[in-house]
Amino acid sequence: MNVLSLFSxxxxxELGLERAGMKTVGQVELxxxxxxxxxxxxxxxxxxxxxxxxxxxxxxxxxxxxxLVCGGFPCQPFSIAGKQKGTGDxxxxxxxxxxxxxxxxxxxxxxxxxxxxxRDWRAWGTVLSDLHALGFDAExxxxxxxxxxxxxxxxxxxxxAYPQSxxxxxxxxxxxxxxxxxxxxxxxxEHGGGDWLPxxxxxxxxxxxxxxxxxxxxxxxxxxxxxxVFEHIGAQxxxxxxxxx
Length: 245
What we know:
Blueprint: E1 2-6, H1 12-19, E2 23-28, H2 32-41, E3 47-48, H3 54-59, E4 68-71, H4 94-104, E5 108-114, H5 121-133, E6 136-143, E7 156-163, H6 215-223, H7 227-240
Helix pairs in contact: 1-7
């Protein structure tokens, strides 16, 4: 399963999906510092700096097929910490993500965003209607990082879109309706645990993270995701497609 990642950040989504057996074949990220991080960990993966021009970039040369497009477009238009301008915010980037999906025609789409996105009927309705027009059905759930054993809350909505089923006759396994088990089977409990190590008490000090972070790394960490969630979702997609994790 080949993955094209949009709004890649420091690669948390790709890390989880690759743990499930997928391969990252392209990344798109605006921030130069984040692109340096991606280049270090995915040195052979082609990379672009602008989602709005990603369709032209991807079509500019021969590329591998894309099975899954993933991304967490900017959450500031919906975050309770922001002004909540919704689709009126210049950072409303779902239309650009939809353009990439339309151009590369993947079998799956994976979206991550703040839970408040679902409560914005105009924005969420646009996401679902665009996916429907592109030939996808979708399932989603709001999950917390604590459900995967992390020692922090980080509630997010996760959406998986897959080919619409054929209701007119026999269906094969890859197009038949299915249900994602978005709730994790294994959990470290609501207060963290499992394989996670707690942070030391000192402010902004975690194992492997410098004590005094400059703005770029701190911003990137704050915008990042929990790879274990995407490993969980990716494993189900791989199973559905007949892959071996």
